[in-house]
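To whoever is on call:

I kicked off a structure prediction for a single chain this morning and the downstream step that reads the tokens threw a length-mismatch warning. I double-checked the sequence; it's 218 residues and nothing unusual in it as far as I can see. Pasting both halves so you can look.
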Amino acid sequence: MSITNYGELKTLITSTAHRKDQDANVGNFIELAEANIARNLRANEMETVDKISESDRRAVGSPPTEGIYNLPDRWLETRDMYSTSSNKDYRLDKTSTSYIHEITAASRAKVYATYGKLIQFRGIPDEDQEFTHIYYQRPVPFVNDSDTNNILLNYPDLYLYGGLYHLYLWTQDLELAQNYNQIFVSSVETINEQADRARGGAGTAPAYNLGNRFTSAR
């Protein structure tokens, strides 16, 4: 059975578990699976490219005295950041929020750090400076039965395994919950490694955090 939308996903989870009595709760299980996917998955389908410009700056001054900008609503993690100086593109380095203040504010913007839903550059960007922001964004959440997103369409098993995991946690069938957790983690690892190879990386998978005692990591 193919899964193309939220309604079909809900039906498949409860039918696979033979727990139609959980029809009223299955939306909650999927919502928890969505959180697990957003926290752990870094698939190519989650990447997007956008511009950060003066309209995103949080601290406004003329001339600007701070390089703090708002991040997009569905932002999860920044992968790369580029800008232009003297008609040449250059890549900014990521740093920590503690170290960024050791960089002189008078230099061109060359490092960035993220905290909460904000990103800070150092030195202070000019008012007309723009940044090319490559980042991972949270998959579009489901509301209506006809809703879908590119993660569900490309990796429907993640939502299925994640939903079953939380269903079995709810019903206190901990052995089945652990089994589906292991399948979910293995699937995420495989997808992340494939994405990393496609980007030319070494294929190192991150640690996983499902927010419970069955969390595992490579």
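Update from on-call: the warning came from a stale cache, not from the record. Cleared it. Sanity check on the structure: Residues 213-218 have pLDDT under 50 and may be disordered.
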